[in-house]
Prior knowledge:
The chain has 420 residues and is α+β, with helices and mostly antiparallel strands. The protein has helices spanning 3-7, 58-64, 66-79, 86-99, 110-121, 137-145, 163-169, 189-199, 251-260, 282-292, 295-313, 345-354, 381-387, 401-419; strands at residues 40-41, 47-48, 103-107, 128-132, 149-153, 174-178, 202-203, 214-215, 218-219, 226-230, 244-248, 319-320, 331-332, 338-342, 390-393. It is globular, with a radius of gyration of 23 Å. 37% of the residues lie in helices and 13% in strands. The protein folds into 2 domains: 7-59 and 295-418, Alpha-Beta Complex (Aspartate Aminotransferase, domain 1); 61-292, Type I PLP-dependent aspartate aminotransferase-like (Major domain) (Aspartate Aminotransferase, domain 2, 3-Layer(aba) Sandwich), CATH 3.40.640. The model is unreliable at 1-27 and 31-36 (pLDDT under 50). Bound molecules: pyridoxal-5'-phosphate (PLP).
Amino acid sequence: MPRRRQNSNRNGRADRIPRLPDHRARVSIPLHCRALLSANEDHSGEVIPVKKVPFFDYPAVYRRFADEFQAALADVGTRGAYIQQSDLEEFESKIAEYVGSRHCIGVSNATDGLQLGFMAAGLPQGAEVIISTHTMVATASAIHFAGGVPIPVGVGSDHLIDPEAVRAAITDKTWAICPTQLNGRTCEMDSLIELATEYGLEVLEDSAQGLGSQYKGRFAGTFGKANCLSFYPAKILGTLGDGGAILAQDDEIAERLRLLRDHGRIDRGDTAIWGFNSRLDNLSAAFLNIQFQHFDQTVSRRREIAARYQEKLCGIPGLTLPRAPGADPDRFDTFQNYEIEYGSRDALQEGLAERGVGTLQQWGGWPIHSFTKLGFTQDLPDADDLFSRMLMLPIHPGLSDEDVDYVADSVLQVIDGLVG
Length: 420
Ligand SMILES: Cc1ncc(COP(=O)(O)O)c(C=O)c1O
């Protein structure tokens, strides 16, 4: 009798013991990984979900700090402190201090932040910027609207921009490298900075998913000239709407960024440069100040969940997991996302959906180079192959251990059915 049948009543769910036909061979899943298989199957083989675990729980962002948010709303409203007020200043200094950045400038979202960053750093019109093909279209559009030409290249097994692919893409028009610190992981920054130095290129980071992650003790967002952070609700520090910031070390660039985000205005409406309205709302900053007090705890919980997935899903043939927390002494990963690889990805995703588990293909499954309507012509077959296998499992602080176990057990159950 397989071990999981003996264990399957662990949560007192005698009625939930999966009824799996005996003819299915289960040699694929190592015994130590065969834990509770949660979902039921009725006599016709139809799956009956035991619970629902959505990919992301948006109301939970509010629920987690509801009372404090209400108090902040009343406080900001009572003070009439809506635009560029003390809560924003406080937030900017806290983030800057936390990551060790000279400047942090709040903006309306990371996409604007990156565009303004390229403008403030002096991107020449028509210059090329090398980006990962595994990033949001926002990285490319920020460069496009700042007047540059984004050039997508492939990624390594860590899903991050591949320094060798960057080297191969450098031309005499290349002006910068824009690595995306994806999934709460930092890119191979030593190699990228060496390349930039060798070819005289700038580095600007898309750190929209990078807050809190570290490379050799240095925080994502502190390597490049102007680097964006996102506070979109599903982000590791996600507010009740859009929000972003730019991190910069250079005083002049920071000054230009402050002008660019606020119509180019200096004192009392006098205007120094053409600018935008791209300010981070003071109310959002007040919410973010509340959330940021618990940031370390949020990161720890995400790492705990990743460790739990690792423990339950390790060693499954054909299933590739992200690096476990602490596995690389040079990296501190925050698990903004938990992106796995599996050959029969679509069937896995479907099976998980039947079991009530929400998953997501990042960017809807579209790498940047696939956007031919935007003019991209690169041929990146390895990335296409990777994109046919990638899937993100739920990971956020609202998940209980039981939720995580249910997701992991559902993955095991679906894979068991697929290979059986
Ligand atoms: C890698 C990356 N870049 C840029 C963005 C854009 O961030 P925002 O929605 O704050 O503009 C995102 C948001 O999902 C992202 O994940």
